[in-house]
Task: structure prediction
Amino acid sequence: MKPVHIVIIVFISIGLAIGISFYGDTSKYVCFAEADQLAKDKPNMKLHVVSTLNTNKPQIYDPQKDPNYFEFYASDTTGMEKRIIYHNAKPTDLEKTDKVVLIGYSRGDYFEAVDILKKCPSKYEKK
Result:
């Protein structure tokens, strides 16, 4: 085998390894109902849920008692509402956002968010 062939095989192997590693870490955008279904088979599958904050229900955050516990309610794109538990500090200006993307795991009666991405209202959209 020529050295050029060996180098090509090594680069192909590295490319395949990178591709497989990205595939294993992908997550899906779902609604709460689909998240519940997926959690039955794969409880540790990380999911993305696009949702809207429900400002009519109480938000529980007491930084004096536990600064890493924030609980609130959100509705997904289908209108299903779920309790969200976030084990981190409350994101600043969360009430000003149009939509939030919750990244985490469905745990039955609640969704455990490990990250919250805020979608701020665009200043370029017509009012």
Remarks:
- The domain at 28-119 is CATH 2.40.50.140 (OB fold (Dihydrolipoamide Acetyltransferase, E2P)).
- The two ends are 67 Å apart (CA to CA).
- The mean pLDDT is 86.
- The helical segments are 3-24, 32-41.
